[in-house]
Design a protein that fits this description.
The chain is mainly β. The protein is built from 1 helix and 6 strands.
Length: 96
Amino acid sequence: MWYQHDTRFRESTSVAVVDIPSESVAEFKRLSGFAQFAPGVPTPWKSYWVATGMNDLLTTDAGNEHSVEGYRDPRRYVVLHDGGDAKRRIFVHTDC
């Protein structure tokens, strides 16, 4: 749906936004290796997806949950957005 990759100053950043069927969320969580998710989106994270034009979905905690492992290396920030329909939007930001 949306993807950007940038490499500079020996750091590589990838940003992606993808939609998956709502029934695939449990499988995504299991296969992604993210053990825990918490409600909402940490305020500093919201800026990671400004370029996508979709970060307005992250302004409230309603319908959002984030991986609690985002501050570990390698840095991987993941937010699941529940828009209330048959799909879930996944926001990913990685720094390596």
